[in-house]
Amino acid sequence: MTTGTHGARPVHAAIAGAWRAARPGAPPGHLDAAGCNVPSDQVLGAVVAHLRRECEVGGYRAVADLTASRSALAALVGAGARDVAFLESGTAAMAALLGGWRLPPGSRVGFTRTEYGSTLMLLRRLARDRGWRLVEVPVDDDSRVDPGGLRSVLAGGLDLLTVPHIASHRGVVQPARAIGRLCREAGVPLVLDVCQSLGHVDTGGVGAAAYVGTSRKWLAGPRGAGFLIVPGLAGDDQESGGARDGRGDGGDGRDREPGGTGRRWEMDAAAPALGGHVWARGEPSPLPGAARYETAEGSMAARSGLGVAVREHHALGPAALHACLAELGVTARRLLDGAGGWRAAEPLDEPSAVVTLRPPPGMDPVAAVADAASRAAEASLLVGTVPVGRAPLDMQIPVLRVSPSPGTPAETLNALARLLDASHR
Fold it and tell me: Helical H runs in 262-409?
């Protein structure tokens, strides 16, 4: 059945209508949810209200209660409120996590060739400075992790694995649950980058040691807010609300077992600070839970807005939203693949709304992508461009990225198809 705004089922059309109603001023030509989505009027209102409160009483007195926001965010990966730390971005969250992970020299850290450029830079710097060995995990022709290849790498010994659930440059959804299961069986902690997946596809049931994400993409929160979810660090103190005996370990002198790996890991922020740490016998000691990673001097207004965005996501229904976006992505891919010689970089039926297009053969790829984005902007269509540096191990040429939000009208995609087709005539 093909009824609704973008040829969707009725329930998807209802989600599209609710999405647009929540942000009546959103530009209809916005096709860059994977870059920076359009927040709702309620999210905007929450940000402005907090800033106004700071003006009225002073920034340090305008304390935002983010407990419900943490719970709503944590629920998307099956964690608890005290497993959540707010930071400035996904990149900042990844740096705080990996920079503080106390792996000894000689440790083997797994990664894939789809790794985000900033994370790859961080891994290489840490490997050089700390004597870690980076181990590439095999992927197939679509850059999807090969479970059999991963099993072999794990059998050879890994101390940590990082995987982007959906990469920034290609809309392939990694088999996160299978990866998580294999890592748990091998006792290896998994760091799952959910910047492009949380709010977009199902992120439950993975059992990762840590999740790194951002506000501004598929959750449609404000810029300037990222997060880190580390299940298990709060230990038995999850609901008690504070460190025991001034310690950051639940009172037993050891960190808990993130990701259910059955092994203890020394996990702390790259730089200890007041707010996430206390003094214990003259040394900084982390508080229980993810608080150790949180930056106290951040945009409280942005974090308040993110909380509203996450609760809106729950209200619309995550499963229905995921299905709506998957259907919209397939629709867009089938419509745009071949238009003007542009070809989709992922399988046409990939269940994601990140659609990346390779330039027509025979054209300068850098110039073609820049020109297509410029002409799209002139037609009031906002699309993304992804340079090779975003994923230097997996990209040979830049791509055009189309990432529609749930409220995208069918005519927006049709207009882009016409534009691409006309450019090659």
Answer: 300-316, 318-336, 365-378
Q: Is 134 helix (H, G, I), strand (E, B) or coil?
A: strand
The DSSP line for 65-130 is --HHHHHHHHHTTT--GGGEEEES-HHHHHHHHHHTB-PPTT-EEEE-TT--HHHHHHHHHHHHHH
Least confident of 131-140, 233-242, 244-253, 279-288: 244-253
**CB under 8 Å to 413, separation ≥6 — which residues?**
6, 31, 331, 332, 335, 336, 402, 404
> Which among 96, 98, 100 is positioned nearest to 110, based on CA atoms?
98
- pLDDT surpassing 80 at residue 55: yes
Alpha-carbon gap, residue 129 to 105, rounded angstroms: 9
Query: Which residues lie below 8 Å from residue 50, measured CB to CB, with a gap of 6+?
Result: 62, 64, 300, 301, 304, 305
Q: Which residues contact 3 (CB under 8 A, 6 or more apart)?
A: 9, 10, 13
Residues 6+ apart with CB under 8 A from 108: 132, 133, 135, 156, 157, 158, 159, 160
Rounded CA separation 277/268 (Å): 10
Q: What pLDDT score does 265 carry?
A: 55
Pair 194, 77: CB distance under 8 Å: yes
pLDDT band at residue 250 under the 50/70/90 scheme: very low
Position 90 pLDDT exceeds 70:
yes
Q: Provide the phi-psi class of 220: left if phi over 0, else alpha when psi is between -120 and 50, else beta.
A: left
User: pLDDT at residue 155 above 90?
Assistant: yes
What is the four-CA torsion angle of 21, 26, 32, 37, rounded to 10 degrees? Answer: -70
pLDDT tens per residue across span 324-379: 999 999 999 999 999 999 999 999 999 999 999 999 999 999 999 999 999 999 99
pLDDT in tens, 283-335: 999 999 999 999 888 999 999 999 999 999 999 999 999 999 999 999 999 99
Strands 84-87 and 226-229: antiparallel
**Residue 408 to residue 405: CA distance in whole angstroms:** 6
What is the DSSP pairing of strand 160-164 with strand 108-111?
A: parallel
How many of the other CB atoms lie within 10 Å of CB of 364?
Answer: 11
- CB contact at 8 A, 174 and 145: yes
Q: Is 386 exposed, middle or buried (0-12, 13-18, 19+ CB in 10 A)?
A: buried
